[in-house]
Automatic annotation (TrEMBL):
Organism: Wenyingzhuangia gilva
InterPro entries attached to this UniProt entry: DUF5522
Protein's name according to its UniProt entry: DUF5522 domain-containing protein
Pfam families recorded: DUF5522
Top-rank taxon, per record: Bacteria
Upper classification of the organism: Bacteria, Pseudomonadati, Bacteroidota, Flavobacteriia, Flavobacteriales
Length: 53
C-alpha cells in the first residue's frame, strides 16, 4: 500500500467529520481499493463487486 501525503484538493471533511477522498486523490494513488469509495474514478460497484465499463 502506498503512503501518499494528502495535498490541497485530495479530500474534504463531510458533515459527520469523516475525511472523504476525491477523484484527484484516487487517480494519484493509481489503483482501486475496492472499498466502494464515493469518488472512485475506476467505476467499481461494491454491490456487484465489479467494474462498470
Amino acid at each position: 500500500m502506498l503512503n501518499i501525503p494528502p495535498e490541497e484538493g485530495d479530500f474534504y471533511t463531510n458533515g459527520q467529520g469523516y475525511r472523504v477522498f476525491t477523484e484527484q486523490y484516487h487517480l494519484k494513488r493509481g489503483y482501486c481499493c475496492k472499498s466502494g469509495c464515493k469518488h472512485c474514478p475506476y467505476g467499481y460497484d461494491k454491490k456487484t463487486d465489479s467494474f462498470k465499463k
